[in-house]
């Protein structure tokens, strides 16, 4: 096992551990109070309405329209519809960039399938299935690299020249785009030197079987180093915004689950009300964490027999 | 302007030139507006105003460097609490996600009416204040935050100016959350502003006087943010009965503290004082429809407002719990919320996960119940009695933040002649805030009211005017239906400042007033126009 293989494994482990840790961090946060924002697609009312439009809504069976939610979400994930509608000049670059990413990841998946088939003794020149996996690797990979490169370059130029974006762009933002752009460009160059991705597939097969890998060319090594470096770095960045997209849309903006006697919700609320409060504002009366939420919320510091205001 | 520049020395970060503000539609298209009145020299000495020359908070300047440092430290301490589970369980998840994930794409900027109407002033950009908070957190509260801070994009100086300007900036956003609607990642800059206000109030004791001392504190001290005590509200309700008789010819007994009634109807207490026709109209409609309801004159029960919603979770919880207690004591089956937008959201949505379900009482929007009354046919309406152009303002708290969109529209269509009701553009869940949201409508210190009518209310004014273009002759009377007390307050201020009725014939009212006006057995018009009202 060579140093590149070790680094690839290490990168994968770092990615899995820290990405999972990030997911877990948000997953285990306390249930928030309701903070939904309409339209909420699963309400199934195209005008953006909610169950609050009905009299005695709590007596009615709650209807959740999952199809309406998917109808909204799929174009949003695939085509970044919100940006298309509200910020078209940026969408022109960020859409090819993201589509390039999706396709490149798709290419990697087909490369992995090809590697598994290779391990099973089915090479592309002897197996229709393996040949299909190879063809799809090439199609997804090459189109992905091209679109990703176009998007990354476009975004770098836009961030450097658009007065709205310039003031909000850091050196790190540019480095991130440059880094991803470099992965796309070198990926494309790898394809030029290895049109069937045979070496890459062999390398991936070696990783899956923990066996020595094939000899890699210079461009392949550069592409691999750029990729595994980014893979390990990615969980620590705000580029993991797919996490936010899931939680902020599905668990915040669309979380209109009412409190109607759900035992789990009740037990959470009771636990939260017992949390100590340490806010220092004099009116809070938290006594430095000695009082719980239930105590401060049920204490009225201004309670007095009613009298005329002076 | 980069967010880091919030810390730069100088008397003022931004100057507001009235010529640069977004133009208004006719007949105000050639209006030459005065600049916002400067604070007096004495006020300038006393109050922090270095953001934009406006003081909403009347924040006193610290006298010594030690005091400044103490405030900076208090801010950081509060920030730490804001991102702790114990102190902020209620908003920790959406706040953490919003702080961590902004891609700074600026898509939100054009959705913000304040940013747009200011002539695109950077300090009002939704990401500006959020990014200042992010950068402070990253540099001063994250491990290794000062390493390569410039390259990582968060090299911000934290000093008194930063904190003071940020405090004022927390009150240049109406929390309408249009910015959140358009964010492709779901980042909630409105929430960040809300949370920022919490650091100032809950840790540092800094909040607008009208919202805290004269608002939620009064509410918990006297029973109403208006300062009105039980005896006063009881008197007012009696007067309302007299006024109803005068206006409708019918003597109605308004039920008060009636145990066993099905509904507790709660109004914004400001209605009793500023727009008594509104609770009167509710009484007329509920009586005519045979609704079993009661008002409360018990402590806090006669004022539906909950100002804590805008700036302080503890104040919010204290008032919401009182509202629920009053309803439980009366034994009602549900609470119906009158025409008050933030009371809708506070009690229906935010308070929903405040207490375990066994302590909750169902809450309902009056809009839904009113539409039910119309549909029931229990009251006969003659749309021709509302034979004037009408448009509808959507209160953010009821519409975008709660999803009550259709009932009020259906009611208006039922009580106006065909073609008289017209929508604003945009409307419904994409509406624009009246400009008085999140407490602005009641904040009257320093030169803030001028900022409010010239900036935060400017987009709504534009919408009001655009809704009636082609009918601007002041002799054609036109009506804005604004079914929310704060929105009405803001609209009233716009009316006064721009002399809208005099110049255009546009006036405003609530939804129930228009309903009573259309009742078949209502002999005299219930609605009065300013030129008919001697008290105006």
Our Rg estimate of chain A from Cα atoms comes to: 26 Å
Shape of chain B: globular
Uncertain runs of chain B are none
The profile of the biggest β sheet of chain A is:
none
- What's the overall geometry of chain A? elongated
The number of strands of chain B is: 8
Describe the oligomeric state of these chains in a short phrase.
Answer: heterodimer
Q: Main sheet of chain B: which strands, in order across? A: 2-1-3-4
What is the gyration radius of chain B calculated from CA atoms? 23 Å
Name the chain pair with the biggest interface and residue counts per chain.
Answer: A-B, 95 and 103 residues
How many helices of chain B does DSSP assign? 24
CATH homolog superfamily of the largest domain in chain A? Transmembrane di-heme cytochromes, Chain C
Name the structural class of chain A.
mainly alpha
Mean pLDDT of chain B: 96
Q: Total helix count of chain A?
A: 12
